[in-house]
Every structure is written in structure tokens, then in C-alpha cells.
Design brief:
0% strand, 64 residues, 2 domains, mainly alpha, elongated
Length: 64
């Protein structure tokens, strides 16, 4: 690890450090296509079930 980079980052105001950290994490964030496609399919199936009257939606506020 580059100690100079770490020292510079630690000198940043907290909000800037958070933004920097988010950018670093986004650069390594990996989403598996198979998992992503499975979730997309699930959402489409649920939307179709609601449209066909096979399922209904409940308001989140009503759950608690």
C-alpha cells in the first residue's frame, strides 16, 4: 500500500474521505451476471403476478 496516498487521504475532510472510499469501492465492486439476471427475472415474474391478479402488493407501513 502506498503510505503517501493513505496519508493524503487521511488529511481530507470526512465527507471527502467518504466520497473517495465510495469511488474506490465502486472500482472493485463486481456483480455476477448470473445473479443479476436471476434477480431481474424474479422481479419481472413478481410484476407479472401482480398484473394478472395472482399476487397483491402491501404497503410497507402496514407491516409495522
Amino acid at each position: 500500500m502506498d503510505k503517501l496516498l493513505l496519508d493524503k487521504v487521511l488529511e481530507m475532510p470526512p465527507a471527502e474521505r467518504v466520497s473517495f472510499a465510495e469511488l474506490v469501492l465502486a472500482s472493485i465492486d463486481h456483480e455476477d451476471d448470473k445473479i443479476k439476471n436471476s434477480w431481474i427475472s424474479e422481479v419481472k415474474d413478481r410484476m407479472q403476478a401482480v398484473e394478472e391478479g395472482k399476487a397483491s402488493l402491501i404497503d410497507f407501513e402496514d407491516l409495522f
